[in-house]
DNA sequence: TATGAATGAGTATTCATTCAT
DNA sequence: CATGAATGAATACTCATTCAT
């Protein structure tokens, strides 16, 4: 648990600096100065710099999932429209609260093609899956006519 | 003129590689191998790597200007709607023909905040100015009512 | 006594790993994982990694001494030939039983010149002294003619 | 050719320092200070430090081959004894002239087990092959009786 | 005693830039 | 003009050692 704390501490510092300066201009040393930890400590919690970035992306996805899940499993939405409305509202709030993560995902990631593309793809796939799943459920629930895109 | 040719040659190679791999993962050496020139030659035409990137952005703007100017100075558009339609069509075609430049502007640039932000801002300002200027002209020409956004 | 036990425990693990992987590729952490002790414990029994290596070398010498001493102080050898024969047999057995230590002494040590050379020299000197002393005794005992090498 | 010169220059400096201080205590920077070249230059001629060490071992083998070949292809040895005598004399001279290389091969290499063992094995195999080949030729030439080891 | 999280000095390696030819 | 060999500042990463618990 202590370890998880440190990991999050580093992750938060990294998120902040990478969102501001980009991946290549954020040096491992910068991050550790930011969170006031020794350089070696970094490698106790991350295999390397790449691993850190992937962790950030994955955390973004995890956090988003939690929001989405909360919205979807909640049985109180009776019709599709209010369901999606809630989903969008929650997503919107999430993005607002996680401006840094969004920045990284939308602006920083794309500049680091070769290493992160596979992760980003998986990421997008996962996001897509959620929406698709929900739509399927909705279709099954008879919200839509069958002849739609 | 020979020099301008060389410069464009390098600029094209750089555009291609940076669009594909990002700024930091495109090395000066890669670019010069791509265009089959010696590494030292680069510094005959550009002050440094940063200067190259700025040149790419500026060329993007210049090319866009040419398209926009052509469209605006052409007196053949009688009403605003056909004017903007032409503008958008031309812009669209331009973007299609310059996919690489767009990629760089939209995806690569943002990951290189600290150095290029001022240039990008200037860039955006310039783009905005054009549109604003045109709108002003249009307003003066009486195309719009005064009480609009 | 408990301490001596721990020390030997570490020494044995180190001997094994260093003989197999060399000095620089055997990390303090590896040794303590091998003997299932915490990393910090190491520094309760050794000043540092160098001290450990020296201890290994010295233990090698001590053990060899015991064998040699046993052989020499034993009054049962009447003539020189049987004395040396016994010495060699015992040494040979010792080397067989301590393959790891030999490995370290013959193959690992030489690659760590600057730190360990003095110790190794002292080591060799000591070994030489034993043989010389024995020979002197033998000479005094009249085993040899004075005009020999 | 200029490049080959530089490579040899570095190789010689490395040989000297590694023979004296061992592999792990000879730092890339030490070698380049020794031969008065910039740090980056090293990586123009060697992929990394390991590659350098392998080059040294291979050069040792190449040089030895030249000596051995000279000795073997020379048709002037009429009987086997004088042939081997020449071989040994030449090898002996070679070892004397290349004390550093011998030092590295015999004392430094063994301490770097995991990386270099395969190379060293190949090395030994090659050396063995030469002697075996020569013996076969000798046997065919009728120098030996068939019933020998 | 025993531990392992934290540390930072030390090292290999990269890459933009220079300059002699 | 053109070149590419040479350079070293900058950076990621390792590992022996410390110290609070």
Shape of chain A: elongated
The main sheet of chain A comes to: none
Structural class of chain A: mainly alpha
Instruction: Give the count of structural domains of chain A.
Output: 1
The CATH homologous superfamily of chain A is termed Tetracycline Repressor, domain 2
Highest-level CATH class of chain A: Mainly Alpha
Strand and helix order of chain A: HHHHHHH
**CA distance, first residue to last residue of chain A:** 47 Å
Report on this structure:
The relative contact order of chain A is 0.11. The first copy, chain A, has seven helices and no strands. In chain A, helix 1 (about 1-20) packs across helix 2 (about 30-35), helix 1 (about 1-20) crosses helix 6 (about 100-110) and helix 4 (about 50-75) runs antiparallel to helix 5. With about 150 residues, chain A is mostly helical. Chain A has one domain (about 1-140): Tetracycline Repressor, domain 2 (Orthogonal Bundle), CATH 1.10.357. The first copy, chain A, has helices at about 1-20, 30-35, 40-45, 50-75, 80-95, 100-110, 115-140. The first copy, chain A, starts with a helix and ends in a 9-residue tail after the last helix. The model of chain A has no long low-confidence stretch (mean pLDDT about 80). Chain A binds a DNA duplex (21 and 21 nucleotides) through helix 1 and helix 3.
